[in-house]
Each structure stands twice: as C-alpha cells, then as structure tokens.
Design brief:
heterodimer, A: about 250 residues, alpha/beta, six-stranded mixed sheet, three-stranded antiparallel sheet, 8 helices, 9 strands, B: about 375 residues, four-stranded mixed sheet, 12 helices, about 5% strand, elongated, disordered N terminus
Chain lengths: ~250, ~375
C-alpha cells in the first residue's frame, strides 16, 4: 500500500529575494483527499504551490511529494499533474495536441491509442467538441478544463490546481467543482487546490490550511466548514465571512 | 469462436464468443500492451457481430485503462460491431459512466478536403484583405498626422525620446558595422575586376554611388525593420491581447495618436540620420579596401568621391529612408494592432511584419529607383 501522505511540508520557509512570505510551515496532505490552501491576496498561496510542485526550492525546510523531493529532472516522467491559473496551454497547439503532448512524450502508445485517451480526457472535462480548436478560441473556463485534462493525461494520483475558479462565471465554476469532486470520488485522485473562492472551498475541500500575510504563518487548519463555524480567530472568521479589513485580506 | 488469450503480467484478455473477457488489474502503466492486445482481438470481429466487454473479472482498473476501453468500444460501434460493457461491478460501472462507456457513440465527422486551387484562392483573398487593411490603416495614419500638424499638443510626445533612443541611438553600432562590411565586401568584389583594367580609382565611384543611392538606405531599413519593426509589432500585439488597447479606447484615447504616431515620428526622424551614418560607414569600408588593395591614397579616394557623388545621390537616399521609415512604422503598427490569439498570435504577427516589411522595402526601393532615374535625379 502506498504512503497515506501524498504531500508533506516540514518546517518550510518560502519567499523570493529578501522577502519571506511564510515561515516554518508544516502540514500533510492525506492521499485521496481534496486539500485547499487558503488565504488573502499576497499571503504566498501561489508561491507555496510553486514550491510544492518543485518549480522553486524552499529557503528552509523540506517538501516531500510521494515521499521524495518534488523537483524533477528533465528525463523523469511527471509524478503529478498541475493546472496553472491561466491554464497555460501552448498557444501553437490545438486542444487535442495540448492534451496529447505528455502522452506522446512519456508513453510508447500508438497514435490511435493516444487519440482515444485524449478524446476520453476531453469528454471527461466536458469538451468533446473542442478537440480541434486552438486555445485562443476558448473561454477562460474551457482553457482551465483543457488544462485539467492535460494534467490528468498521464493518470497521476495527485493534481495541483492554482485558482481553478478564478475568473469563471458561477455555472462554469460549479461545473469545475463537480468535476473535481467526481475525479476525487471515482478515481481517488488527490487534489491540492490554491483558492480564495469561498463557495468552491466549502463545496470541495475536505481539509485546508489558511495562510496569513502579516504573521507569515499558518493560522488555521482543518475542515473549512468546521473552521467557519467554530473558529474564534477573527482573521479566520473575517476570511470565511467576508469581513473587510481583517488581517488575512 | 476459439479463445485467443493475450497474457501480460497483471491482466488477461480472452475472446470467447461474443465477449471479450477482461481479467486482473488494468492500469495506465500497462497501457501499451493492453492497447496492443485489445486491437489484436478487435480486428478479428467482423461488421454486424457483437463484442461485449465483460468486466466481471476486473479486480482493479484506473482512469487511463478505462479510457482505452471506452475508446475501443466507440471504435467498434463506429465500424458496425455491437459492443457494450457488461457484468461490471458497481465501482467499475461508475468509471464506465465517468468515461462515457454507456453513451451512444456519435459518428465521426470527416473534415472536408480543401483542394489546391481552393487553398490558393483563400490565400490570395487573405493577402488582398491584409493589403486592404494596411491601406485603410495608412489612411487613418495620414488623417492623424494631419491632425497632429494642426494641433501638435494632442500628440503623445512623452514616448518620443525613448522611442527615438531605442530605434536610433541603440541601432548605431549595428547599422555602422553592417554598412561598413557591405562597403568592404563590395569593394573587394570590385577590386579584382578594376585592377585588370587599371581602373583602381573607380572603386570610389562604385562605392559612393551604390552606397548613397541604394545600399545605405536599404541596409539601414532592413536593420531597423528587424530591430524596431519587430519590436513595435510585438509590443503592440502584446498590448492588444492584454486588452491594453481596448482600455485606451474606453478612455477615449486613440491608439493611433497615442501609440502609432510617436513610433512613426521617431522612425521618420532617426532613419535619415542613420542612413547618413550608413553612407559614411559604407564609404569607409570602400576606402579601407582602396588603400589596402588598390594602392589608392585617402586624398585620391575622397577627391574622386567628391567629384562623382552629387548632393542628389545623397538626397535620394535620404528620401528613400523616409519612405522606408513610414513603411516600417505603418506595417509593424498595423500588424501589432491586428493581433489576436495570445502569445501565438503575437509571434505570427511579428513574423508577418518582418516578411511584409521586407517585401515592401524592396518594392519601394525598386519603384523609387526607377522614378528617380526617370525624373533625371
């Protein structure tokens, strides 16, 4: 049986240049869960995500993904999928080609099998008819869905999502939440989601950490619904109840 | 029908009657042998027959393997073989539903083939449309320039010095070097021929006239096209995809006045100056060869140059450089503002800027050369 912890951060300090964003952050992401990283703008959520996926190295501390460092060499197949905030699709490739890219790079499947897998992934994210379209022709929500399909192409058990609902209309946002829940439930995928969309948080996240910019630390952890209902910390309450002027904002 | 087992390590496939029995653990990690096995068995089933995917023996299956099975079912149905997932337990059935393995398979629409003549026609119409857009943009530019002449205070002059610095001062080294080398190479090519006829001094005539009338302005324009033209197109293209141009329009600022005219004015000012520098650099290149290879003196070379090269030779080069400056600014800004489609669109427009500008420069150069000859200057 694989390790019950998918992602582990031990005493991690992150930042850029002389700026420290978070200090001594320690948390675990249980395998098969949907885990949210919360906090107001500028608290270091996306930066923490970049550290978790190995694009940046922490100033101090250790990050483990599946028991080893998230930094991957260029000759290693990816161990996890990532969806960036903008989708980050390659503009010169069609939707289908974007999703096929990791399969062509890292498997020895024949073109018909790759085509079949791409079609299945696009159907899964509700974009069967968009295979031949270019990213520039898609809406923001569609781009994010394609990015999720690409992140899932190699069947990773762990997927990182950066602001999946940001900039989406309520219907698209709800659809994306349903998709995340479905994938978690049916395929047992682990999701680490950076977000500050309250509706999404309460709908999908099973556990979370909340980062604070002022104290540069984790100020709350646990089930977001429980935190909303029981926390006494004014910063946590301020975040969950959308009260302006509280420290996390 | 007889059994045809395919048995990689973790799973097995067995064709029995109208069923394809799947057994064991089906994972994406084994996708290649799984797909090969499925294809091998699927190919033996003729149209009109049935091949159901029997899942009762599946112990574990992940999304990738299920995606392949759903793809196989769809392919079978498209070629007229009846196929469904059968005997799947509740967990596997959920995956079947997730990957659309229970849905009616839609027919694949074939893309209409576009013939060579159709493609040629479409490409021609596209080019003509682009020319029309450039001409319309030129019209707007002329109107805006006229407006600027009558009301100079409406111009965005703040951007002018920095644009002139980037397009002009920063280009001095490369313009000088390129034209020096052109003068040097031309003189070298000519030196051998001129020596044979004892006409060494004529290298000054050759270099002076060809550099001042043709190569100086043309090579400078090519360098500026590559540097500033591409930069203008990319800059404005990025602003366009980033909605900065739309933002300007919403606050009633004309992109033409605010962004295009400073670039046009900057190029019209710096190009003649750079062309004069180019003339000088080309002549120095020719002089270097004259002294080193043709036993000329500096005084002799310059005297001959002064005798042959007239004010009109230099002036026609300067006039050409102004036309080239307008062409570069016109095409690069028009292409930049016509950008759509993200980073890919910016790249495409930058490329088309360079191609269209180079073609226009050569065309304009040839036209002006003929015009000046016919006009007797």
């Amino acid at each position: 049986m694989s390790d019950p912890i998918a992602v582990q951060a031990i005493d991690v300090t992150i930042g850029w240049g002389d700026t420290i964003l978070q200090e001594h952050a320690t948390f675990d992401v249980p395998r098969g869960s949907i885990f949210a990283i919360l906090g107001g703008s500028g608290c270091g959520k996306s930066t923490l995500l970049r550290h978790l996926i190995g694009l940046e190295e922490p100033i101090a501390g250790t990050i483990n993904v599946d028991g080893c460092t998230p930094v991957q060499g260029p000759s290693q197949p990816p161990r996890f999928g990532v969806m960036f905030q903008s989708g980050a699709l390659l503009g010169s490739l069609s939707v289908a080609e974007n999703v096929a890219l990791p399969l062509q790079q890292w498997t020895r499947l024949p073109p018909d099998a790759v085509g079949g897998l791409v079609a299945a992934k696009l159907r899964l994210v509700g974009l069967s008819g968009a295979a031949e379209q270019m990213p520039a022709e898609l809406s923001g929500g569609m781009r994010k869905r394609v990015a999720i399909a690409r992140a899932m192409a190699l069947e990773p058990e762990l997927i990182f999502l950066d602001e999946p609902s940001a900039g989406l209309d309520p219907v698209s946002s709800a659809g994306l939440d349903e998709l995340i829940l479905d994938l978690n439930l049916q395929l047992g995928l682990t999701f680490v989601i950076v977000t500050h969309e309250l509706e999404s948080i309460f709908k999908v996240a099973q556990s979370c950490i909340m980062l604070d910019r002022a104290t540069r630390s984790i100020i709350a952890r646990g089930d977001p619904r429980v935190l909303r209902d029981t926390s006494k910390d004014p910063r946590v309450l301020g975040f969950f109840n959308r009260i302006p002027g509280v420290a996390t904002a | 029908m007889g059994a045809a087992p395919v048995a990689p390590a973790a799973f097995s496939l067995e064709h029995a009657g109208s069923e394809l029995r799947l057994r064991g653990t089906l994972l994406f990690a084994d996708a290649a042998p799984l797909w090969a096995g499925l294809r091998q068995l699927e190919a033996t089933v003729p149209k009109g027959e049935t091949l159901n995917l029997e899942m009762s023996g599946v112990e574990r299956i992940d999304g990738g393997a299920m995606a392949l099975l759903a793809c196989l079912r769809a392919d079978l149905q498209r070629r007229g073989v009846k196929s469904e997932f059968v005997a799947a337990d509740a967990q596997v059935h959920k995956l079947v539903q997730l990957y659309g393995g229970d849905l009616v398979v839609a027919k694949v629409k074939r893309r209409r083939h576009i013939g060579f003549l159709d493609q040629l026609g479409q490409a021609t119409i596209h080019v003509l449309r682009e020319v029309q857009l450039v001409l319309a943009f030129f019209g707007q530019m002329v109107v805006s320039v006229a407006g600027l002449i009558f009301k100079p205070q409406i111009g965005n002059w703040r951007e002018l010095p920095s644009t002139m610095e980037r397009a002009g001062a920063d280009a001095v080294p490369i313009v000088f070097l390129v034209n020096f080398l052109i003068g040097l190479a031309m003189a070298f090519q000519a030196a051998a021929q001129l020596k044979r006829f004892g006409a060494n001094l004529l290298v000054a005539d050759l270099i002076g006239i060809s550099v001042c009338r043709e190569l100086g302005p043309l090579m400078t324009a090519i360098v500026i096209c590559g540097r500033s033209g591409a930069a203008f197109a990319a800059q404005l293209g990025f602003m366009q995809v980033n909605e900065e141009i739309d933002a300007l329009r919403t606050i009633s600022i004309s992109p033409m006045r605010f962004l295009v005219l400073p670039r046009l004015v900057a190029l019209v000012v710096v190009m003649p100056l750079l062309t004069l520098l180019a003339d000088l650099a080309g002549i120095i290149g020719g002089l270097a060869v004259g002294i080193s290879n043709l036993e000329l003196t500096t005084r002799g070379f310059l005297n001959e140059l002064a005798r042959v090269v007239t004010r009109w030779d230099v002036a026609t080069g300067i006039l050409k450089s102004i036309v080239f400056a307008v062409a570069i600014a016109l095409i690069s800004c028009q292409q930049g503002l016509a950008t759509s489609g993200g980073a890919e669109g910016v790249g495409r427009r930058t490329t088309s800027t360079i191609v269209a500008t180079l073609f226009t420069l050569i065309l304009a150069d040839a036209t002006l050369t003929v015009f000046f000859r016919l006009a007797g200057v």
